[in-house]
Design the sequence.
């Protein structure tokens, strides 16, 4: 489906859902950011205290993978709603950010490194 | 741009960036979730201690709006990378989740309410 | 009780609980930080989408206040465990940080302002 | 210092700092929770993409350990401020929560296990 759906359609889907429920009044930038971070936390919680191998195994369990996918959907939902409500073009924002990252993480420095750009030499 | 871009294209963009840098070794589900939540925190920090009106004004300042858009791009970047690496179709996940939410938040109960579905009567 | 209990005693309480369960193996700095942030998220979730007045009212409901206090306890639990395990004196750390904040937020600049120190003029 | 300092003293320290700056108006429960989670994120960010051994090594570097301790202090600062402002006794809350955890994680089930209580059998 990711191949056939553009971001705008997803934004519209989320917009309709929220507007049908009169949620504009609750969906300020601060609360939508809280929405994103609390859902990000639920995603992260799946992996708490788990070593790498155990984390990888979770994805072999279809039911578990489904749960994890739902947490990802929750994050995306709030991110799309934020972008829709505040008129942010996510594709433009991502493309720009990636160009910035190209400079921050040039291949000859960043290849095979887990360092933050501020620590790269 | 959101009208002309599908999720798959964005996934490919992020994939190439990360694989060019040999980052597969660092990009397990746990660390990518940490990526999402730390960027979500940077987004939220823009609104810390700010009342609603002040938050809304931030978006009138183009430079500030640009900064906020970049934090959103950072979240999307990690979310796309996660989905790409663990083979999650975000459109499917979102569509399913929205169907679930349709049931959790039926119009006659949820309209105009800021309650969580577990608290709706 | 806060008047009669020193931080060290609380650290010992948490240490015993975790060591009795052989949890040293799971309690690295990364997972304990995940512990802190996921519990911080549960605290924050209580206030999601709620305007100020509604938030304040939660504290008048004893059952709700108890729930909120428990989330705070969960954060403190992981913070104490981290400090105990990695030999961090929280009182020293806080005192130092407060001295730094005294400089970052001098009275004549910071009084009545919600700005971050980097934005104070 | 943790042996000689009780929570109440730390609460007073934080209270004075904030009241001197007239910050009561900004320090509602929602924004203080945002304070906690954004600082928790800064703590977590130190360990992002780092394998266990690399994380452990950070603590041998005194400058790095100092930075990490400061993030912990930031979390504690907001937690104390929250508790002070909303009249929560942290010692009582922690003690109660630990009693609950004793039941949720009985020794014979929880020893050596990284499972959440809802998954323990």
Sequence:
């Amino acid at each position: 489906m990711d191949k056939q759906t553009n971001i705008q359609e997803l934004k519209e889907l989320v917009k309709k859902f929220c507007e049908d429920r009169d949620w504009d009044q609750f969906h300020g930038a601060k609360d939508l950011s809280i929405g994103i971070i609390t859902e990000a936390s639920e995603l992260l919680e799946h992996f708490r205290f788990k070593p790498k191998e155990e984390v990888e195994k979770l994805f072999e369990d279809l039911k578990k993978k489904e749960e994890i996918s739902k947490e990802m959907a929750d994050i995306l939902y709030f991110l799309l709603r934020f972008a829709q409500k505040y008129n942010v073009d996510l594709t433009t924002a991502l493309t720009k950010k990636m160009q910035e990252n190209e400079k921050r993480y040039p291949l000859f420095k960043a290849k095979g490194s887990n360092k933050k750009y501020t620590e790269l030499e």
In short: Chain C has a mean pLDDT of 95.
